[in-house]
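Problem 12. The chain below contains 172 residues. Write out its predicted structure in token notation.
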Amino acid sequence: MTPIAPLARELARRNVRYLLIGVAGANLYAPRGQGAFATRDHDLFLPADADNLVAAWASCDALGLDLWSGDEPLDRPRDRWLAERFITRQALTRITGPGDLLVDLTLVMAGFDFQTVWSERREFQIDGVPVPTARLLHIIESKQVAGRDKDKLFLATHLDALRQLLTGPDAD
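Solution.
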């Protein structure tokens, strides 16, 4: 089983709104059996909604996953008050767990607001679990806007493959 599948299942059970973004999201657009882009983590984009963030944290707690804020364990209680502080600061929650699970819960996707990306999402199945995923074009545009060195390198290195995915028969 893919390490992200149990978390995706629990997030769905609690009606948490999120979108898979980043390189892990881009990988879902590659045809089965073809080379995927290398990444160690999964980035989940959440809306700026305190109740939704609390439900996401509760999903992680239910699975016994470790939650981090920076270099420290995420404080308790993991309640609405704390979630509102995270939203104000656009803070990231890092999740670690079994099977090399590494997930970032982010409240930011460079160049986009949550509702825009959510309204055009695509759903993929990972080990039988539906995973709402940002459109490939949104993922690529966000990496361009972010302008981080690692994003520039990814885009330059995989330019041809990304073009093929964007113009292929399964293009979004």
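Discussion. The first helix runs from residue 4 to 13. Students who got a different answer should revisit the alignment rule from Section 12.3.
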